[in-house]
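To illustrate this point, we now present one chain and its tokenised fold:
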Amino acid sequence: MEGLKIGDANLVVYLHPSKSNNVSDAVATQLSSLLFKFNESLDGVLLAYEPDVLGNLGTILPGIHPYFGVKLKSKLLLFNPKPEMLLEGKVVKISQQAIHMIVLGFSSAVIVEEDIREEFRYKIKRGKGSYVSGSQKKHKIKFGTIVRFLVKSFDEEVLHLSGSLLSTNTGSASWLHTNSEDVSQDNSNTKRRKEDEGRDNIVELSKRAISEEAVPLNTNPQTKKSKKRKGNDS
């Protein structure tokens, strides 16, 4: 899944002298307080860490509150989704107006009706709603489905995602995994069809251009006069 990154960071954690007897636990407590929050310095939401304490910086006395710094190098797992990235979330609520999901167990995500492609139709069966593809009956999105979607935006303060299912490489993750070759073939066919339509349009425009040169399309004298006047005004 996109949006996840692993990196090394050089950090300094400041501790009260009373924590000097158990520095490792104190460092872990400080780092744990940063979990599942967006941190501008780290440029992402901290999901996991693996610290390696390098040593103390010595005692520092800022005013009347003493503390000492601990240098450490840590491997970090960060989450920072950007627009157009592909993410996966588990559906926790579904209605005709929106699909609500949980991503990585902590971040909420929503896809509103206008961001769900027309291929999917909302249906209710036995009191339960689901989105079913009109062209692929087995491609369904319902409660508990893992959905692959494109990121539209990410609210860093409340860790809320807005997503989209407009692209053909989005939908039920299990269905996409099983039918990835078919999806690629469909995309290829769609691209080829668009190219053919483009060539047809060019030919049609060429024919129209020849026709317009041979026979004027506008034979209304008033219209011609107004066009001439407009040209003189300019």
In short: Helices lie at 23-32, 173-178, 180-214, 221-233. The chain has four helices and 13 strands.
